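ok posting inputs for the heme C job
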Amino acid sequence: MAIGLASCESKEEILYKQYVVEGRVLYQTHCANCHQENGSGLKDLYPAISQASLWKRMKSDELTCLIKWGRKGTKGYMPGNTKLQALDIAEIQTFLREQWGPQKTIYSLDSARFALKTCETKL
Ligand code: HEC
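and the output
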């Protein structure tokens, strides 16, 4: 009889790790070409996103809208990623927090879904 892998991890911890792993892949595909793999950005073209101060300036829900719909701002133009769904965005943000955020917590699917309803900028 198989006993299975002994694991002390809770469901929440497993979900968190899954989001981080998948978020990393999505980040590399959709974000790293501009913001770079280490989040350093690229000179004056693309801002760094690896400082913890980012989360003081920007709420997570605002970041959800930015990822989905893009923005033309003082630092340049970031195109939207309209194909990314709530789950993708939840995973990306969980990865960003894990890498650079002050709090290494999950950004839940429900939060991402809720935030998407509040976005003002629609293409
Ligand atoms: C084509 C290049 C490009 C891609 C791809 C891109 N960004 Fe951006 N990003 C920018 C630019 C340019 C800005 C500055 C926009 C502005 O001035 O408001 C920006 C701004 C940001 C900011 C805010 C930075 C700050 O200091 O306010 C965050 C966070 C961010 N991007 C995350 C992401 C994430 C996550 C992805 C992937 C889903 C992504 N970006 C994809 C170019 C890009």
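notes: The mean pLDDT is 92. The CA atoms of residues 68 and 81 lie 5 Å apart.
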